[in-house]
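@channel sequence for tomorrow's demo:
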Amino acid sequence: MTYKRPLASFTAVRDILVVDDQYEITDLVKDFLVDEGYQVRVAHDGASAWLDIQQRRPGLVILDVSMPVMTGDDLLRLLRKAGSTVPIILMTAGHQPQIYQGLGANVILPKPFDLDTLLTLVEKYMQ
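structure tokens (generated this afternoon):
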């Protein structure tokens, strides 16, 4: 008898999901990380990201806080409540970013951010 794990439990080693409602940011981050050899998927709100994660678990999520439909902090709470251990780099231009670490974000990346800093964090969490 063969046992098949649900599709969402398989993780592509270099697969990253970037979630931000600002297309300029997702395009910039995607192009940059693809050039670095990563596979990058994009979602523009938390609800779309949640559906995407259900289909195929990424190796890392880069997540903005302020988005329509479902905010980044709502998605973060939902992922952690569901038991997901996927690393999350949370991007925010807001105040008191330490709140998000208490919700389960692995690291907070203040906006605006430097691409070299982003790459260092991606490399750290994609090991």
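heads up for whoever presents: The chain has one domain: 9-125.
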